[in-house]
Amino acid sequence: MSMSEPLGTPGSPKSLPLILARELASNLATPMFLIDPGGMLVYYNDAAAHILGKSFAELGEIPSGEFGAALHLTTPDGEAVRRRDSPAGIAFFEHRPSHMTVMATTYDGERRQYDATAYPLFGASGEMHGVVAVFWAHRPEAMES
Amino acid sequence: MQARVWGCRGSLAAPGADTVKYGGNTSCVEVRLDSGHALVLDAGTGMRPLGVAMQADPPIELHIMLTHLHMDHLQGLGFFRPLFVPGADIHIWGPSSPVEHLADRIAMYLSPPLFPVRLADLPSKLTFHDAPEEPVPIGSATVRAGKVTHQGPTVGYRIEESGRALVYLPDHEPSIGGSLVDVPPEWISGHDIAHKADVLLHDAQYREREYPAHVGWGHSSIADTMVFAHKAGVENVVLFHHDPYHTDGELEELLVEARGKWPGMEDRICLAAEGMTVMLDDDGVSLHA
Question: Taking an 8 Å Cβ-Cβ cutoff, which residues of chain B contact chain A?
């Protein structure tokens, strides 16, 4: 890490685990979001851009709370999911993996169901490098087969 | 500070008539600081002749700084004479692991059946450290390590003294098959540690046409090396970690390829060669073959 730029500053150097996670995400068709240790959404892949309606190049780095608010996450029963209780929030604040079925508002205003999984990234010395959050579009037929 | 290349071959020692100009010994670079301390970057087979030379001119303190533990960066350790001097105080730095201490990982090589002498039986006094990801003072320099993309835990080192910076990234694949051209600098492995270096010794193992068959092996194409160096804003690039199959003639073709990618800066790009010295001081940087 650079000594001059604190974590979470847009454009600040990224740690190797985040760089490798971005490389993985950029090669996947599964929507994937990366949050840095400062709580910034620092990358999402093209598949995730289909949910948000904007490419990462257009949106850039934003606080992850803003991103969560834009999706209006709720449970399938319609109960609002607070940031801290979302899979990404649990991974970030509680340093543990989390999985949840959520409803999200996509860029076209539609409410869609996703299976969301998030897990924290820890380095060799136990230091926190950020969070990976993955969204799978809910496909009931996949569960039936 | 002054750096001297004792080995710059990658992957496997490659002695012979075809490699005599640039050398066949694997990675080892000696850095002598103004304070009299010595840093030895990697322990490839070039470490054997370094150890002989160091007996005649011992430093006031010796630090061996390993980028990673592949054999071409470790094999010389068992033949480094200062390690066999009773009571000699030697510091060894290397990438951290959440599983095994650095000494235990090195001992996997320095123990039978791979080696006759056990690490624990060496008469010198060895102190092991995790590679420092925050700057640490060593003599008149500060040293910082940064994790980089290679196969397995690997770091590069940045050594700063009197306003000059030498950066050593011998094994590095920053692109992993993609293109670095459009990647923001903060997302490029090693960028932070190489930024604005006066001298960058960097992996240049493959020619462009060779790289597609070696994606993911942990090394750079010459094209990626030059894009990386350009984006990092370095002043001088020393092409390092020569492929063991590359003859002296082929390396010189690779140098032409590299210079073609950095028009106007041709004189700031060179091939590492055994015996090459790099001086960094108040007057600037000078490289001598």
Answer: 95-98, 130, 133-135, 146-149, 153, 176, 178, 184, 186-189, 191-192
